[in-house]
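Re: the 200-residue chain
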Amino acid sequence: MPIIRTVRATSRCEIPKIRGSRFAAALGPAASHADAQAFVRAQRDEAPDATHVCSAWRLASGDARANDDGEPNGTAGRPILQEIEGRDLCDMVVTVTRWYGGTKLGTGGLVRAYGAAAAAGLDAADVVAVPITVALSLRFGYGDSGAVQGALVAADATVVDSRYEVDVALTVAVPIEHDEALRRALRDATAGRIVLSKVG
């Protein structure tokens, strides 16, 4: 089964001061750019007195971003991202917040400090392996509920959202290797009545 390595939950870690500056790492799961950006905003809101909140994230799609937040180019976001990539983690975000201590660290010192803070945070994180999934939106009549549920169970699909109105609307996460088989099974089980679409 195809899997990704990610973090289970948000965590924080502060390393010893470096020439007076404080460096604190925070990390958490992020399945999209929007999730990662929201996490970074939350860290900024929690530390309004910080000098910089630098960040990096990497998604299961392979897309990755790094932000130096005012530090010299390549001295903060890139070392954070390298720590994520070095552990082959994805669908997660790491921030390193700096409170300036009055002494400049120089380019090399910044790279080492941001990398060390990110490494400490990742070393302490709860890393998990999770199956790669595809999100599907399903819409079907109540009369097809039993057939749909049977197909979902057979495909190890998980319902992540449900609405019961004129008809049933579900959002499900299915392991990527079962995606096509589930689509066929759902069409067969409902004689083509189900409306299927990929989410995202």
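The chain is about 30% helix and 35% strand.
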